[in-house]
């Protein structure tokens, strides 16, 4: 559309359709500020000064227009001043960007929700682009490695982890398009880390996404169990473990030496199997009495 001296002078069919006017006559009854939403008043005043007073082009900017039915649309507007018979006529071109702005709004809301979730999670969540630059580093777990949420964003992962070759392997594997997982120890914390390729809607890989979960307690428990198991296996004392029904679940090496039975022969059996002649009667009686009493 065009306007001059504060009045509309023309609008094409596309403009009328977007602004929901049935005909040009109806539209021309308006003044330019009649279709400008109050949120855009200030910016439009500045642009009118540029167009009418300085006779300069007003480059594309986002505004809000009010349609004939009262609905509000988002538009991208460009203004060009044209001198006609000593008057400035402003030719305005605009594009309806309402759907795009709504999509951006929803995306922003989703990103904010996602950011809230990942910021408050106990795990570490990270995203890295194809050049090895962090685009996301969130999660309370970062405090365990002396980092703050977002502190790694914009930094090169390869400049930060030279002392951790396992992490380099995981990241490079995921950048090459393969999933990878590993246990990494950092600052006395054991993290289970997953790396996975990240793709956009077109199916193109844009980088990797990963998660690190603190498994220190579980791993330490397993290590303690293993130490206990090793201690029992190497114990100079015969050890037998049964279930509540008295069925043998485990015997150590000293037990097999003591009784003459192999582990394979004893698993699933009760200590009665020892009453076969290989073991003295007093030894068998003592074992069964101990098992039966729950000691």
Please outline the helices and strands.
Elements: E1 2-4, E2 7-10, H1 13-18, H2 24-28, H3 41-53, E3 58-66, E4 72-84, E5 87-96, H4 98-120, E6 124-129, E7 134-138, H5 157-160, H6 165-175, E8 180-186, E9 189-199, E10 205-214, H7 216-234, E11 240-242, E12 248-251, H8 253-259, H9 263-266, H10 281-292
Antiparallel strand pairs: 1-2, 1-5, 3-4, 4-5, 6-7, 6-10, 8-9, 9-10, 11-12
Report Rg. 38 Å
Percent helix: 25-40%
- The largest sheet has its strands arranged as 2-1-5-4-3
Strand content: 25-35%
The shape is rod-shaped
Individual helix count: 10
Major pleated sheet: 5 strands, antiparallel
Structural class: alpha+beta
State the distance separating the first and last CA atoms.
Answer: 95 Å
One letter per element, helices H and strands E, the order comes to EEHHHEEEHEEHHEEEHEEHHH
Q: In total, how many beta strands?
A: 12
Kindly state the mean pLDDT as a whole number? 86
List the uncertain runs. none
């Amino acid at each position: 559309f065009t306007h001059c001296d504060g009045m509309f002078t023309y609008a094409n069919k596309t403009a009328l359709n977007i602004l929901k006017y049935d005909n040009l006559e109806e539209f021309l009854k308006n003044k330019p500020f009649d279709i400008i939403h109050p949120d855009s008043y200030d910016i439009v005043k500045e642009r009118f000064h540029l167009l009418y007073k300085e006779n300069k082009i007003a480059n594309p900017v986002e505004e809000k227009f009010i349609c004939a039915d009262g609905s509000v649309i988002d538009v991208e507007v460009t203004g060009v001043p044209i001198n006609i018979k000593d008057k400035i006529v402003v030719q305005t071109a605009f594009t309806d960007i309402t759907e795009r702005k709504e999509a951006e709004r929803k995306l922003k809301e989703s990103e904010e929700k996602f950011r809230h979730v990942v910021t408050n999670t106990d795990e570490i969540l990270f995203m890295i682009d194809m050049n090895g630059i962090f685009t996301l580093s969130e999660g309370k777990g970062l405090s365990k490695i002396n980092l703050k949420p977002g502190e790694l964003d914009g930094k090169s992962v390869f400049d930060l982890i030279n002392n951790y070759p396992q992490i380099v392997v995981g990241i490079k594997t995921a950048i090459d398009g393969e999933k990878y997982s590993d246990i990494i120890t950092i600052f006395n914390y054991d993290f289970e880390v997953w790396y996975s390729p990240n793709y956009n809607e077109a199916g193109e890989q844009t980088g990797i996404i990963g998660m690190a979960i603190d498994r220190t307690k579980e791993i330490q428990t397993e290590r303690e169990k293993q130490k206990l198991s090793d201690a029992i296996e190497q114990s100079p004392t015969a050890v037998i473990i049964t279930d509540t029904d008295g069925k043998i679940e485990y015997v150590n090496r000293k037990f097999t030496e003591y009784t003459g039975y192999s582990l394979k022969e004893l698993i699933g059996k009760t200590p009665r199997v020892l009453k076969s002649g290989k073991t003295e009667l007093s030894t068998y009686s003592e074992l069964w009495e101990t098992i039966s009493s729950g000691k």
